[in-house]
Design goal:
The complex is a heterodimer.
Chain A (H helix, E strand, L loop, with lengths): L15 H5 L18 H9 L1 H16 L4 H13 L5 H14 L1 H9 L2 H4 L3
Helix pairs in contact in A: 2-3, 3-6, 4-5, 4-6, 5-6
Chain B lengths: L3 H7 L4 H13 L16 E7 L5 H4 L4 H6 L27 E4 L4 E4 L12 E7 L6 H10 L9 H9 L9 E4 L25 E2 L32 H21 L4 H24 L6 H6 L15 H20 L4 E6 L16 H25 L6 E7 L2 E2 L11 E2 L3 E6 L7 E2 L16
Helix pairs in contact in B: 1-2, 2-6, 7-8, 10-11
The chains are: A mainly alpha, B alpha/beta.
């Protein structure tokens, strides 16, 4: 199963990010939802202004708590996929945080298969 | 259940048949081909779509009888249902026609740029629509059905033939720079086919031609202390992708029987390739001067008047045509090129109810100069051999006038033309009657 959100949508105005993430055509009945893996979908999850904004917000919130990098990334992984990262994962993400900040870590987490797929 | 071949063969307006022809071209490698009188060779399609309904009467379908009857009260000899109030006096062709090429096909002066490729073009003057409503008529020409829920021809072609290239999407859409036509994205939707076969929208004119190809420099708030700057430079993108890949691979190792995981990891690799391939495909700086000149892209003025004008339309359409050739050349299967957007005022599409000369003029000039350049360019590269160029519109326009200078909708008969991909050139296949309102009645 894929992680999903419910929201209102104007039938005549499809939202490009939602469309790339397999949002059903709102003008007709859809009995089975598509689950695609396209390059354009990867690009939207990585680069869409909405994903960037949310990544940035999250990173700012975590950084305000003043935690060291390894604790911060551990907290973020826990929040997103409800498990502790193992040692190697904590190391990789802390290294990324050290180099490029927690927003980069948030972007990685939003693009994890483990985040996207619930099962 | 209908067999895929029957379905494609029966779908309206020949788009299905085109897809079928291309499929057979692939299937027939080394095998015998049954049922076709020629060797199929189409591998790619460029569909040029005139949104709003281009007038066959004023561009391609010359009717001397109508020119002679100009100004007289119209009499169709049968009841005609107009969309608005378009049954005024006969309105002769707005521009003069003269014959071109060895075939001597008469073309209107506004599309005279197509004169030097007319011997490669095949005109179909007896197209019949199912509806005079823009949205339905557009769907019929993009999907073969006049209601939503069916895949675009481009989606069928990408689904059936797959990619020739693993760096770019299989089906690319170049919308009018002013916006989308009737039905918006439904014209390139995959409907019940896998979503990967849907069209990918590219705006060659924009600084970021593909949405989200790169992260936009973006910051909602002032930098908080100790926080997140530095996640946009290329090195951070590389490090981020590398970390993501390693984490996803570790996760996939723990879930060895889930093919979705590998597919998603691959989709990031294709995305990275696309980040390199797409800008290269759209960067015209390696085109020699004579090619830029051919497409009218030499000495482009830095400013254009705010009024719609022929030179600017030629530049805009020419740029899309050149982008289409570069994409086709790199293995894209199907490119949909749009001229005109949805309805509005002043007219920025082909829906010339008020004034054909004013509203068709710049669009027709621009279309003809870009399309002619595209055909010449494909031909000189040998690409016309296996690329179909298909010119379509929603329906035609009435031979009678509306408000003196305009024309109302005419789904009863209109024109499409094809070129390349094995289509015999210099021919007219199917006629309309003298008032350009019906296909002639076949003797029984």
């Amino acid at each position: 199963m894929r992680r999903s959100v419910y929201r209102f949508i104007a039938r005549s105005q499809t939202q490009p990010l939602m469309t790339s993430l397999d949002c059903a055509d709102p003008s007709m009945q859809v009995d089975v939802r598509n689950q695609s893996n396209s390059a354009t979908q990867a690009l939207s999850l990585l680069n869409n202004a909405f994903t960037l904004m949310v990544a940035e917000e999250w990173a700012d919130r975590v950084s305000r708590s003043g935690l060291a990098n390894d604790e911060a990334v551990s907290k973020m992984v826990m929040k997103a996929i409800v498990r502790e990262p193992d040692k190697a994962e904590t190391q990789m993400l802390s290294d990324l945080a050290k180099q490029h900040g927690l927003t980069a870590v948030a972007r990685v987490i939003f693009n994890l298969n483990e985040f996207l797929y619930v099962d | 259940m209908s067999h895929r071949r029957n379905f494609l063969m029966n779908s309206a307006c020949g788009l299905g048949a085109l897809a079928l022809q291309a499929m057979l071209a692939d299937e027939s490698r080394g095998a015998t081909t049954r049922g076709l009188h020629h060797r199929p060779r189409a591998k790619r399609v460029i569909q040029l779509f005139m949104a709003g309904a281009a007038s066959h009467i004023d561009l391609f379908d010359y009717k001397p009888a109508l020119a002679k009857a100009h100004g007289k009260p119209s009499d169709f000899g049968e009841p005609i249902e107009a969309f608005q109030n378009g049954l005024g006096p006969w309105l002769g062709p707005i521009w003069p026609f003269r014959p071109y090429g060895e075939s001597g096909k008469p073309l209107s002066s506004i599309v005279s740029a197509l004169g030097n490729v007319v011997d490669d073009m095949a005109f179909v003057h007896n197209m019949v629509g199912k509806s005079g409503v823009h949205s339905q008529a557009t769907l019929l020409q993009t999907t073969g059905f006049d209601r939503p829920g069916f895949p675009s021809a481009g989606a069928w072609v990408s689904y059936a033939l797959g990619s020739l290239n693993d760096n770019l999407p299989t089906f690319v859409v170049l919308p009018d720079h002013r916006g989308l036509a009737s039905n918006g994205t439904k014209n390139w939707d995959s409907a019940f086919l896998p979503p990967q076969s849907a069209g990918t929208v590219i705006y060659p004119d924009r600084p970021q031609p593909i949405a989200d190809l790169y992260p936009q420099p973006f910051r909602t708030k002032p930098e908080p202390q100790g926080a997140s700057r530095g996640w946009l430079p290329p090195q951070s993108e590389q490090d981020l992708r590398a970390t993501l890949k390693r984490l996803n691979e570790r996760h996939a190792l723990e879930h060895p029987h889930d093919p979705r995981l590998e597919a998603r990891i691959e989709s990031y690799e294709l995305a990275a390739k696309m980040q390199l391939a797409a800008p290269a495909a759209l960067d015209f700086s390696d085109e020699p001067d004579h090619v830029m000149k051919l497409y009218g892209l030499d000495n482009v003025p830095s400013h254009f008047p705010t009024e719609i004008n022929a030179r600017e339309e030629a530049v805009l359409f020419g740029r899309k045509c050149l982008a289409a050739r570069r994409l086709i050349e790199r293995g894209v299967r199907f490119v949909q090129v749009w001229s005109g957007n949805d309805n509005g005022f002043p007219r920025r599409n082909w829906d010339s109810h008020e004034d054909v000369e004013r509203d068709h003029g710049p669009l027709a000039y621009g279309m003809a100069s870009g399309a002619s350049a595209l055909i010449q360019d494909l031909k000189q590269r040998g690409l016309l051999e296996d690329t179909v160029v298909l010119w379509t519109t929603e329906f035609g326009r009435l031979p009678s006038s509306q408000g003196g200078r305009g024309r109302d909708h005419n789904p009863f008969v209109f024109t499409n033309w094809l070129c390349g991909g094995g289509v015999r050139g210099g021919i007219t296949c199917g006629q309309s009657d003298q008032w350009v309102t019906n296909p002639p009645i076949e003797p029984k």
